[in-house]
Automatic annotation (TrEMBL):
InterPro entries documented for this protein: Myb/SANT-like_dom (IPR024752)
Species whose genome carries this gene: Dioscorea zingiberensis
Compositionally biased region (Acidic residues): 157-170
Annotated stretches, region: Disordered: 157-199
Domain Myb/SANT-like: start-end pairs: 4-94
Record field: compositional bias (Basic residues): 182-199
Protein name: Myb/SANT-like domain-containing protein
UniProt superkingdom: Eukaryota
Amino acid sequence: MGDTNTKLFLKICVKEVQAGNRAHTHFTKEGWKNVVSKFVVRTGLSYNYKQLKNKRNSLKKEFSVWAKLVEHQTGLGWDFVKRTVLASDDWWERKGQENPEYLKWRNGGPKFLDMIEICFKDVVATGYMVLLPFAELFTDNEEANQNVFSQMNEVEVDTDNFDDDGDSPEQDTSREENSTTHNKKRQRMSRRERKKKCK
């Protein structure tokens, strides 16, 4: 997945986090359904749940390494040019000895860090230091967003494997069916009662 679609994917994920569709560390079934539907509509690409879940896990893993780099650190700044941690050469050398993977961010931090932080800082980090000044994440015009939401209903999403919330699809479906059946029974009863009153 290229940078353009990764950025779009993260925007969608942030929206679902802010909408409360993340239970603990994972999206709920409804959250994943929304993520897949919106991504398909916005990109025209036929990505499925497993592919997008793998992408999310990859981004979470990358953020986890970044979080360990900066956690519990004091006196660090932000390099607006390189868009990474502003620290001394000695600091970077020490960190490189701890984990050589840290050095990949010496000349540039993780892409889309502002959105990645929203998605994962409460999931993988305990002593995480937020260094990046937040910018406005969503600049899409409202008309475009409305088009997306109107098209979402037209996208068929296979939810059989959306099990990250701990509830199996069969359990969710049965609850919905039972609720629907119960509502229909109540509607029939109310119609009968109205007819009796009319008589």
